[in-house]
Amino acid sequence: MTATLWPILMKPDEVICLAEAVHRLGRTDKITREICKEFSICRQVRPGSPIEVSAPALEMVKHGDIQALELLREGRRDHPRVSRYFDFLGLSL
After folding, report:
1. Domains in the chain, ordered, with CATH?
2. How many whole angstroms separate alpha carbon 33 and alpha carbon 27?
C-alpha cells in the first residue's frame, strides 16, 4: 500500500483504540501498528496522540478482503461487500 491512499473516514462508533486492535488481531502491538500503517486504516492527529483504528477496515484486512477495503475507502458503505462487515460488527452504515 502507498502513502497516497485516501483516508478511511471513520464515524465515532467505528473507532477502536490500538489496544483493542491488538486484541482483535491477536498480534503484538508492533505488528498491529505496522498492519494499520501499511493498509492506512488508522489515524493519529499528531505525534504522541492516540492511534485510532477503523474497526470495519481492520476486520477487512484481517479477512484479507482488500476489495472491500478499497470500496470502503471510496465511501461505498452500501456495497454488499462492505455492509456485511458493518453488520458483522453491529455497526450502522
Report:
1. 14-89 (1.10.1660)
2. 10
Q: How far apart, in whole angstroms, are the C-alpha atoms of residue 4 and residue 6?
A: 6
Decide: 16 and 53 in contact? Cβ < 8 Å.
Answer: yes
pTM for the model stands at 0.92
Count the neighbouring beta carbons within 10 Å of the beta carbon of residue 71: 19
Label residue 6 by pLDDT band (50, 70, 90). confident
Can you give the chain as a three-state secondary structure string?
CCCCCCCCCCCHHHEEEHHHHHHHHCCCHHHHHHHHHHCCCEECCCCCCCCEEEHHHHHHHHCCCHHHHHHHHCCCCCCHHHHHHHHHHCCCC
Integer distance in angstroms from the first to the last C-alpha of the chain? 25
